[in-house]
Write a structure and sequence with these properties.
The complex is a heterodimer of chains A (268) and B (203). By secondary structure, chain A is α+β, with helices and mostly antiparallel strands. Chain A folds into three domains: 3-52, no CATH class; 61-153, no CATH class; 159-264, Immunoglobulin-like. Chain A is elongated. Helix content of chain A is 47%, strand content 22%. Chain A has a nine-stranded antiparallel β-sheet, covered by helices on one side. Chain B has two domains: 8-111, Rna Polymerase Sigma Factor, Chain: A; 116-203, Winged helix-like DNA-binding domain superfamily/Winged helix DNA-binding domain (Arc Repressor Mutant, subunit A, Orthogonal Bundle). The longest helix of chain B has 26 residues, at 79-104. Classes of the chains: A alpha+beta (268), B mainly alpha (203). Chains A and B meet through helix 1, helix 3, helix 4 and helix 6 of A and helix 3, helix 4, helix 5, helix 7 and helix 8 of B.
């Protein structure tokens, strides 16, 4: 396509009214010709004046919080931050349980993003395939954990329990959220000291009739820790009285041996 | 440090906000939403004619901007043009999906034809006071100088997502006639817009 032919098409191109073949030819010319590119830009600005002049209508007030919460989630996942985003998500959940919709949209975008990266990587050498698999794996794990946490904290029946550090860890703070409808819980803590060598932190459910192991915590270098709890135990343990974190042998313990480092308030 | 805290984001130019977006500044993002959220929603609503769908589109558009602020290139035009092109394209995709689904249920898809054509009756929701209103009123005036058949052809393309050939089929007019209407209409709009910008000392 030469300049003359391209210029015939620029208005329709800007309006999105060319068929695929014409569009490709026109775009190819515009990409290689500065003068036509300037005219194409002018045509675009004219075309989008149509949108600019559209009579204004108001979206629902919840839309803004939904979008901002999703943006906060997106930023923190990108940066590998794992503790602060859910404050935003929790706030949005309070606003109207909209966080899940935002989350669904977000997940879709991450998938799109991976596909984009995938396409880019395919153009490179095949050795890149391993890098892609690694990215996909780590992202997948992270999304999996975070989407579960989000499902828990935005569930209407979710109950949040504050947890405080004991004398062994006076700087520790945390909370535990449990949704009985989802049968899922999540713990988030900060200020945890490194556990003694060879041991790891473990979360316990404290019942009238005993302590039940609810899994080990993922401890980060910055002293934050978290875990997802899926209730797998059954039996009559009596009334639930609280939650506690102890240091146990790194292999995991079914019987508690350590003293609580972080615990909910209560009489137990 | 104190200086960084007293920045009033509402006073920043679009391009300055976009620079901050590249640094993952959530407040800059919020300022852009406050400035253009209603507009993006309104464009989507005009195209898809369903406020729930239009909200989903709006969310996609803004999150895309948030994820990929570096894709905006000031050299290639104004921010609002870029944003609206994303909004328009995303809305048209949705309208097509909707159209396929509704045709399946034997109903018309998307907004009705007459609803997508800019008209003298277009008014902003009175609850929305916007800094853009003067400029937008001027652009709307420029649209209204077009003869109706040119406005129709342009609107079917832009808001209806139709190609020139599809417009010709829909209107029962030769393809050449539709192409001419689009070119003449765009020329007139361009002239009217340039005149207004020059008069206002912009550009």
């Amino acid at each position: 396509m030469d300049c003359e032919a391209a210029r015939e098409h620029l208005d329709a191109l800007a309006l999105g009214a060319l068929d695929t073949e014409e569009r490709r030819a026109a775009e190819a010319h515009v990409a290689s010709c500065e003068a036509c590119a300037a005219l194409a830009q002018e045509a675009r600005e004219t075309a989008h004046a149509l949108a600019f002049a559209t009579p204004l209508r108001q979206p629902s007030a919840a839309l803004k919080s939904r979008i901002l919460a999703a943006a906060a989630v997106l930023r923190d996942v990108r940066e590998g931050r794992r503790s602060r985003w859910w404050a935003a998500a929790a706030a949005a959940a309070v606003v109207g349980g909209v966080a899940l919709a935002a989350w669904a949209g977000y997940l879709q975008m991450e998938v799109d993003d991976l596909n984009e990266r995938n396409a880019a990587l395919r153009r490179d050498a095949t050795s890149q395939a391993a890098a892609l698999a690694a990215v996909r794996g780590s992202l997948g794990d992270r999304i999996d954990t975070q989407s579960q946490v989000l499902a828990i904290i935005s569930h209407p029946d979710a109950v949040r329990t504050e947890m405080w550090g004991t004398e062994a860890a006076p700087g520790a703070r945390g909370w535990y959220v449990w949704s009985s409808a989802e049968q899922l819980g999540a713990l988030d803590a900060d200020g945890m000291p490194p556990p003694p060598p060879g041991s790891a932190y473990q979360l316990w459910f404290i019942y009238e009739k005993g302590w039940v192991n609810a899994g080990s915590l993922e401890l980060e270098a910055d002293g934050s820790a978290r875990t997802i709890v899926r209730r797998t135990w059954s039996g009559d343990w009596g009334q639930l009285q609280g939650y506690a974190v102890t240091a146990e042998p790194a292999a995991g313990a079914m019987e508690r041996s350590g003293e609580p480092v972080l615990a909910s308030a209560g009489d137990w | 440090m104190a200086e960084a805290e007293i920045v009033d984001y509402a006073d920043l130019q679009d391009s300055e906000l976009m620079d901050r977006l590249c640094g993952r500044d959530l407040r800059a993002f919020e300022a852009l939403y406050d400035r253009y959220g209603d507009l993006v929603f309104s464009v989507a609503l005009r195209v898809v004619a369903d406020s729930h769908v239009a909200e989903d589109v709006t969310q996609d558009v803004f999150l895309r901007v948030w994820r990929r602020p570096e894709q905006f290139d000031l050299q290639r035009g104004k921010f609002v043009t870029w944003l609206l092109s994303i909004a328009r394209n995303r809305s048209i995709d949705e309208r097509r999906t909707q159209g396929r689904r509704l045709r399946h249920e034997s109903q018309a898809g998307g907004a009705e034809e007459e609803d997508i054509i800019p008209s003298a009756d277009d008014r902003d929701d009175p609850a929305l006071a916007t800094v853009l209103s003067d400029e937008r009123a001027a652009v709307r005036q420029a649209l209204l100088v077009l003869p109706p058949e040119q406005r129709l052809a342009i609107s079917l393309a832009y808001f209806g997502g139709m190609t020139q050939q599809e417009i010709a089929n829909r209107l029962g007019q030769p393809l050449g006639t539709v192409k001419t209407r689009i070119r003449l209409g765009m020329q007139k709009m361009r002239a009217a817009l340039n005149e207004r910008y020059e008069r206002r000392g912009q550009r």
